[in-house]
Amino acid sequence: xxxxxxxxxxxxxxxxxxxxxxxQRVEVPCPSDxxxxxxxxxxxxxxxxxxxxxxxxxxxxxxxxxxLSNGWQLSHPLRAEEAHTAPSFVPDKNLKTVxxxxxxxxxxxxxxxxxxxxxxxxxxxxxxxxxxxxxxRSFRFRAPTQLEFMPTxxxxxxxxxxxxxxxxxxxxxxxxxxxxxxERFYKRTMPRHGWLLQDEQERSGMMxxxxxLMTVDPYxxxxxxxxxxxxxxxxxxxQMNGKTLSYRKGSDKLTITIYSFPHVYQRSLESPFDMxxxxxxxxxLVAVYYFxx
Length: 293
What we know:
Blueprint: H1 2-7, E1 34-42, E2 45-52, H2 56-68, E3 73-74, E4 96-102, E5 107-113, E6 121-128, E7 156-165, E8 168-175, H3 179-189, E9 196-207, H4 209-216, H5 223-228, E10 238-249, E11 252-260, H6 264-268, H7 276-281, E12 284-291
Antiparallel strand pairs: 1-2, 2-6, 3-4, 4-5, 5-6, 7-8, 8-12, 9-10, 10-11, 11-12
């Protein structure tokens, strides 16, 4: 469910799906001690399957030398404890996976090695080059769920309601309303549900992606991995403005982030991202993080 937390930002946080419109061919060579068994499409990834008599170390060294000498960047090797943040196109989380990225085309290549049998046997290379990505396309937009623990925002479309990370409940909305009336709505109605405003923070201006993500989703668990793999460097700064409201009721805590992204749809027309949902439902993103203790 890591991708749901990631997509709560709604702008371009599905970083593993970055792609340029002009596709470039990715060369995947075969070492002398290996043979290509099969190629197949898995989603938007092209998977090359090899059989080898070499070791996982020599195989990794061969492809590291190849990719680095052809303009790729070696990204942080994926460890077992990070499997929950692995790109969705890596099917076997038990394998050692080394990720390479290339900014010129936004390709992602993942070398997946099995070192459990002295490194001999088979290995896969996944090349991920989607044409265009729609961050909101996998969500079903609907009327807001009536919430028992806080007032329900009207005039918005809910795109996510998740309870997968107890004690947190997360809710995400898109709306055409501006930040100010939404802020006034919550400040007026939250006390009726017993919530006391503890803090409020205002942010505006052009922001690099890591700051944007931490502002819109202050509880994200994926930023460290995204920095290590270099994906945060692929996203240009974005204009945003809004407020973060922090509430408390006894031992329960609740955070509301209210941020508008001006002109994001117009800018997306010349980018790898399809932001049609922000054109349809609005470019103000409201996210709720409720911790029931």
